[in-house]
Structure to design on (116 residues):
């Protein structure tokens, strides 16, 4: 088994082997993984009904990527803007109907490598 994640076909082979009654040590040896990996794949199969990798949920974005581009563009066009000036917040609110905090704006600009 290569380093990293098992492929979906390998995980399906684990499920098939276990359903055929093979011991987990034999399945692990056949695929070159550990018996614990076999147990984890089977636990996931029993819990969710599939063995595919799912995206993690995480916190949703407050602003979209287009809105982030709008904000960074505004600060690139006018170097005199500051986080306390109201012109960026009014123009952003007019375009997106969202109120964003100075903290959110600061993190958006920092991720775009803009010094404010």
């Amino acid at each position: 088994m290569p380093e990293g994640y098992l492929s979906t076909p390998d995980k399906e082979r684990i499920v098939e082997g276990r359903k055929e009654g093979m011991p987990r040590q034999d399945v692990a040896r056949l695929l070159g993984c550990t018996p614990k990996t076999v147990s984890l794949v089977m636990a996931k199969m029993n819990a969710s009904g599939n063995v595919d990798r799912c995206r993690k949920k995480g916190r949703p974005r407050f602003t979209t990527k287009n809105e982030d581009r709008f904000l960074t563009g505004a600060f690139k066009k006018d170097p005199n803007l500051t986080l306390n000036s109201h012109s960026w917040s009014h123009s952003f609110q007019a375009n997106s109907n969202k109120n964003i905090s100075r903290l959110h704006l600061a993190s958006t600009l920092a991720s775009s490598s803009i010094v404010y």
In short: The chain has two domains: 8-48, 65-111. The first helix runs from residue 8 to 19.
